[in-house]
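Hey, I'm writing a tutorial for new members on how sequence and structure tokens pair up, and I'd like a real worked example in the thread rather than a made-up one. If someone can provide the structure for the chain below, I'll link this post from the tutorial.
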Amino acid sequence: MEKQLLAEGFRFVAGVDEVGCGALAGPVMAGAAILPLDSRLGALRDSKLLSPAAREDLYPLIMKRAVAWAVGSASVEEIAALNIRGASLLAMRRAVEGLRVPPDFVLVDAWKIPGIPHPQRGVVRGDRTVKSIAAASILAKVTRDRLMVRAADAHPAYGFDIHKGYATAAHRAAIAAHGPCPLHRLSYRTFGAV
């Protein structure tokens, strides 16, 4: 898809993806990446299909080889105010706005991002079929995972370093035992919100 857009005259094509929508704690994050056609990142694929070690290996390579890259986030408070979809779109917009090279075209995993001036296309399962979207998913996932590992130091009772805020049995048991912490998304039904 990037090759086709480049052939149509678009010079900088950005891929965008988000991570963390299904978590019970922590921000939602989005990555944006503009890759050259010769990026030589053959192992790129959706971050969910890669091991943590493979993602960590690819992360610095993407940053080094990308024409531009950025990560944006939306906080737990923004998730509560906007809902998870609105917060995800905000994080994606922030990622696009953070690119040091403005894109000519934006390819987004499954969505379209309101409020950006660039032409764009939502690509269903784009994280599995478009290299720049896969790169964006890795940037967002590794950044978010590292943040949640650091959060475990401040909130050791919850095991954020293990499950990264997702709804595992151990995480649910920790919430039941200790109640929620400031990183938990209290607007989610898990915490009694309607």
